[in-house]
Design goal:
It contains one helix and ten strands, in the order E-E-E-H-E-E-E-E-E-E-E. The chain is mainly beta. The chain has a single domain, classed as glutathione-dependent formaldehyde- activating enzyme (gfa) (Alpha-Beta Complex). Strands 6-7-8-9-4-3-10 form a seven-stranded mixed sheet. Strands 1-2-5 form a three-stranded antiparallel sheet, with no helix packed on it. A hairpin with a 6-residue loop joins strand 7 and strand 8.
């Protein structure tokens, strides 16, 4: 499915548009994504910062240190709490879109499993997709998977 892609929070206060194809998309099995999604993993995609357009509302933001040791600015709806995207300090020109907030996340291809060492035992299918034990340098994978 070609860009643009639209999405937003659960209550509708925030709407966004992604105007470019993802640099990479992946399943993250870190415990933070497990907690954020109340699931076994998060489906994420990275895009250049300039290709995320907030069309309605203003996300709230909190910064915390992730398991990788890097700061991560988490952006979410201040009204309903839906996590929307993050800004990793290691790659400030990138936005990590939480694909569950897309209006249609079904098209997002899984190119990589990251934090596989934190995966729940039943959560990684035998799909032949590369598994990285922790946090990789994502720039190393863009255009290669």
């Amino acid at each position: 499915m070609p860009a643009p892609y639209t999405g937003g929070c659960g209550c509708g206060a925030i709407r966004y548009r992604v105007t470019a194809e993802p640099l990479i998309s992946y399943l993250c099995h870190c415990t933070e994504c497990q907690r954020r999604t109340s699931s076994a993993f998060g489906l994420n995609m990275q895009i250049p910062a300039e290709n995320l357009v907030i069309e309605q509302g203003e996300p709230a933001s909190r910064t915390r240190t992730a398991a990788s040791g890097n700061d991560l600015a988490l952006n979410f709806c201040g009204d309903c709490g839906t996590p929307l995207f993050s800004v990793p300090s290691a790659r400030p020109g990138v936005r990590v879109i939480y694909c569950g907030t897309l209006d249609d996340p079904g098209w997002v291809p899984v190119k990589l499993h990251i934090w596989a060492d934190s995966a729940l035992p039943w959560a990684i299918p035998d799909d032949g997709i590369e598994r990285v034990p922790g946090q990789p340098n994502m720039a190393d994978y863009i255009g290669k998977v």
